[in-house]
Amino acid sequence: MNQTVAIKSNESLSNRAYRELKEKILKNEIKFGTYYLEKTLAESLGISRTPLKEALVRLENEGLIVIQPRHGIKVQAVSAEDMEEIYQIIGCLECEAVYLLANKGLSEEQIQAFDKTAVDMDNALSRDDLTAWAEADENFHRLLLEYCGNKRLQNIVMNHWDQAHRARYFTLTLREKPTNSTADHLAVIEAMKNRDVTRAVEIHRAHRLKGKKLIVDILKKFRMEGL
Predict the structure, then answer these.
(1) DSSP 32
(2) Cβ–Cβ contacts within 10 Å for residue 82, how many?
């Protein structure tokens, strides 16, 4: 194997390790507060420690883990206070995305994409499939960021997205059935279609504030010091 092929192979292993470990962290399969040795992680992924180290550095840079020499890695905690701050950032910037979209209006393709997320949310709730509901709900919020046209805004929100995802995933079964979320989304979509900037932003701000309060209250109620 020549050097170029070896480098590409190593990068591929590193990317795979990064994706698999990140998914496990976001789904709380790799638990907060537990140390994981690099050797154990490498063996579970079927790779050497070199591509694993590259993957771990990426995860640490994203704030998901802490690498501790001789101890391995530990997943970063997300407390109620953390979520309060994270949702303040996400909420404010998503409202700006809504503002931008409502100002310029939605294309037919964008309307169809937004409407599909609402249909998917309703269908998931009718099956009592909260995981599918959460995925459809997140798709709506991702589209706001994607369509608003501000890449820097999108990147800032996505830098905090993973921590919020972990908390939402963990609290999913501890909350009441989210029957009102679809209505909120549809109201925001309608206001953006009509270029009613004030109404679109007000509805979305209220929606995000409700979501933040719900998750923060659950974390405090169950005294979850960190996820």
Answers:
(1) B
(2) 20
pLDDT tens per residue, range 143-153: 999 999 999 99
Give the Cβ contact number of residue 151 at 10 Å. 10
Is residue 90 a contact partner of residue 207, using CB atoms and an 8 Å limit?
no
Estimate to the nearest angstrom the gap between the alpha carbon of 28 and the chain centroid: 13
Residues near 27 by beta carbon (within 8 Å), at least 6 away in sequence? 169
Burial of residue 80 (CB within 10 Å: 0-12, 13-18, 19+) is: buried
User: Which residue, 183, 190, 179, is CA-closest to 124?
Assistant: 179
Residue 189 to residue 93: CA distance in whole angstroms:
17
192-206 pLDDT, tens digit per residue, is 999 999 999 999 999
Structure tokens at 68: 């501790």
80, HSE (Cβ side, Cα atoms, 13 Å): 13
**In this model, does residue 157 exceed pLDDT 80?**
yes
